[in-house]
Amino acid sequence: MSARETILRRLRERTDGVLPVPDTDFSVVTGRGWSQEERLQRFEARISSVHGEVIHASKDEWVAALRETLQAKGVKRLGLGREHGVAREARSGLQGTAIELVDADRDIETWSREQFETLDAGLTSTRGGIAETGSLWLWPTPDEPRRLSLVTPLHIAVLDVETIEDTFFDVVERHGWAGQMPTNALLISGPSKTADIEQTLAYGVHGPRELVVLMRH
What is the mean pLDDT of residues 26-38? Predict the structure, then answer.
């Protein structure tokens, strides 16, 4: 019996027939039937509507686009991993520039203040995107800890266009979260924002005030 079937059986038992749970086939709601181009357009429209910035680049030229972005935004210290392919390519392409590359795979206690006070930006890979909501999903690792995307003033996320899926449900189903739920998955739908009681919206109060998505084609 699957986890879903177990949950539905328990709900039926506890409601004792008062609140019957139908045998819903959730496969009928997954996927919107969008083409890759439609997914890309929807993703970009939604994340741009909440002040996310999307930069398109080929997989051969994305590091050059990264370098230009860092220079345009005045980044002097960039936090990044070392093992992931995104980090390795970025390190290779940024050698010889004035940008200091800061290793992110250290014990958190040894550089906690540094992350909050002196890092200008964090660079991360992504596991994919969600077209319906304009969201990124990340699966942090010791090499790319979650603070890279949560505390720096600027978060730069590298997204491959073919990894954009229709809905969050598609992500959960296709990547087997029911059998192996990630312990620390992140959903990011724009830069950090908050509003006060007068509904004045402010960016960057509780996290990055800028989000740049480097879209690789």
Answer: 74
